[in-house]
């Protein structure tokens, strides 16, 4: 069916198109022109749809119905994109007369769904009303419409484009589920907003941890000098997947002093490492003279079983 | 104890953790290698740095290293590298690093930078014009639950876009994927840095008490 094809052809472009829409937002008339020029696919019905309401859209745009905040111009493009794509395949007859928008706005009764205005809109529709609502809807997409009009108009179009829109929503929902699994504590939360909250908190906490750890590392080391050659030479032969997690455990220790005695117990370290990595002698040699890890004298709780096994 | 030694130690001692793309330790090793190189480049210009400079250098190297492990496969890494190379001090550093890695990554980063600049500029223009033109009609309207929920989601999406590097120029669909990638990389970074910090603390304590 042509409608479905047109919609799908533009599915990938909806995001970019919405970007372009937002980018050209500063003049309402120009927005429509942008929309006309943006769609790559044929969409003859779409362009016809656009050309026709160009004048009326401008008129409708200035209607007092629109009360959306400026930020609405930058709607998450998936939402307006979904709704915009809804219109794309709407090859309908040209509009005959202007239909009061308010009537349609007040008629809608959208159920609570933050993803899409749901179907089950009991309004009866004829072609003209549909078209008017779509044009009004599309320019509201461009401009950042009042929510009621969005829900009213989108309900109409959604019924036609339901499968496509559902597919996209399902993709988004699948990814949100992945995110929920990744972020700890998100599994029990229902609702996109709260999940997004948790994700934001998680990302912020990770970024703060990076800052804190980098400051901590900067404090520990007097300077960042690197004896690279020997290290890299040994590195190639010693990159094994060690489960020696004892020496490095995510627990907080008090900041140590800077004076690390390098000559202290290189032998102990050597033995320790040797005991652990029989198959990787390369690692040991450059480290001996440089490390001062006294494992034998260790009584700290940090050390794991592996370390204690060697001692 | 120099930082690099600790880095090298942790290369062999990285604890296993979850990473969806490659084996976890492989990712960490890659990150460590990159970080090592970055730090080496940082240390060449000057030998004595204040603590803040060191911290900035460490963080920058870690960020760039993290981004380069992705090999320009994700948008945020390109954006991060582009942002890092925008500052004059870091430019040669980042470019040097990228030259070692891949020309493709460098070109991608510069390209991405241009795109980002363009989009950000246009969005700023729009914001300004909207705030000037728009007359806010605060007509009392029945608040629908869906509209409230949509607004909440929209707000949070905006915040998330500001958090993820390069997020402003993404649509919500790819934003989620970039967030996933970014969270994983951040976790790798935090794990490795924490290992390093703990190791250094341990060694310092041992050095003091031993």
TrEMBL record, chain A:
Domain of life: Eukaryota
Cited PROSITE patterns: BHLH
Name of this chain's protein: BHLH domain-containing protein
Ranges where the record places region Disordered: 95-122
Alphabetized GO MF terms: DNA-binding transcription factor activity; protein dimerization activity
GO CC annotation, single: nucleus
Record key words, sorted: Nucleus, Transcription, Transcription regulation
Residues that span the membrane, as ranges: none
From TrEMBL, chain B:
Presence of the UniProt keyword Ribosomal protein in the record: no
Location(s) in or outside the cell: Nucleus
Any Pfam family: IBH1_N
Keywords for this protein: Nucleus, Signal, Transcription, Transcription regulation
Signal peptide range in chain numbering: 1-18
Top-rank taxon, per record: Eukaryota
Keyword Transcription regulation: yes
Major subcellular location class: nucleus
This protein's GO CC annotations: nucleus
GO annotation terms (biological process): regulation of DNA-templated transcription
CDD domains listed in its UniProt record: bHLH_AtIBH1_like
IBH1-like N-terminal domain boundaries: 26-87
PANTHER family reported for this sequence: TRANSCRIPTION FACTOR IBH1-LIKE 1
Stated name of the protein: IBH1-like N-terminal domain-containing protein
Organism expressing this protein natively: Escallonia rubra
């Amino acid at each position: 069916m042509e409608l479905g094809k047109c919609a799908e052809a533009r599915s990938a472009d909806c995001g970019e198109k919405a970007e372009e829409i937002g980018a050209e937002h500063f003049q309402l008339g120009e927005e429509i022109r942008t929309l006309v020029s943006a769609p790559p696919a044929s969409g003859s019905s779409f362009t016809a749809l656009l050309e026709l309401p160009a004048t009326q859209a401008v008129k409708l745009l200035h209607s007092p119905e629109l009360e959306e905040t400026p930020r609405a111009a930058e709607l998450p493009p998936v939402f307006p994109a979904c709704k915009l794509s809804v219109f794309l395949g709407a090859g309908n007859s040209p509009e005959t007369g202007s239909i009061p928008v308010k009537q349609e706005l007040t008629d809608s009764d959208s159920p609570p769904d933050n993803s899409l205005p749901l179907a089950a809109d009991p309004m009866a529709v004829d072609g003209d009303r549909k078209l008017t609502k779509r044009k009004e809807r599309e320019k509201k997409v461009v401009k950042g419409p009042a929510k009621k009009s969005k829900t009213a108009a989108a309900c109409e179009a959604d019924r036609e484009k339901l499968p496509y829109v559902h597919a996209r929503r399902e993709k988004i929902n699948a990814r949100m589920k992945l995110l929920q699994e990744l972020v700890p504590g998100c599994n029990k939360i229902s609702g996109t907003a709260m999940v997004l909250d948790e994700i934001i908190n998680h990302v912020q906490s990770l970024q703060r941890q990076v800052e804190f750890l980098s400051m901590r590392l900067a404090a520990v080391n007097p300077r960042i000098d690197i004896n690279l050659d020997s290290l890299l030479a040994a590195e190639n032969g010693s990159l094994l997947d060690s489960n020696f997690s004892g020496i490095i455990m995510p627990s907080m220790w008090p900041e140590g002093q800077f004076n690390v005695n390098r000559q202290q117990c290189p032998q102990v370290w050597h033995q320790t490492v040797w005991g652990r990595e029989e198959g990787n002698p390369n690692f040991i040699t450059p480290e001996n003279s440089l490390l001062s890890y006294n494992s034998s004298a260790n009584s700290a709780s940090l050390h794991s079983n592996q370390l204690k096994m060697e001692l | 104890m120099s930082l690099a030694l600790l880095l090298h130690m942790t290369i062999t001692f990285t604890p296993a953790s979850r990473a969806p793309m490659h084996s976890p330790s492989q990712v960490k090793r890659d990150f460590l290698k990159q970080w090592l190189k970055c730090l080496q480049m940082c240390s060449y210009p000057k030998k004595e740095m204040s603590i803040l400079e060191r911290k900035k250098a460490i963080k920058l190297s870690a960020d760039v290293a993290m981004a380069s492990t992705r090999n320009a496969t994700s948008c945020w890494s390109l954006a991060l590298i582009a942002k890092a190379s925008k500052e004059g001090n870091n430019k040669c550093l980042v470019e040097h690093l990228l030259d070692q890695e891949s020309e493709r990554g460098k070109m991608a980063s510069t390209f991405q930078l241009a795109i980002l600049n363009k989009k950000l500029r246009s969005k700023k223009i729009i914001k300004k014009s909207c705030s000037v033109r728009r007359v806010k009609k605060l007509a009392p309207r029945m608040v629908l639950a869906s509209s409230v929920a949509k607004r909440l989601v929209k707000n949070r999406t905006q915040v998330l876009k500001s958090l993820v590097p390069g997020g402003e120029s993404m649509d919500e669909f790819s934003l989620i994927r970039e967030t996933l990638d970014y969270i994983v990389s951040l976790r790798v970074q935090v794990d490795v840095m924490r290992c390093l910090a703990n190791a250094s603390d341990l060694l310092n304590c041992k050095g003091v008490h031993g």
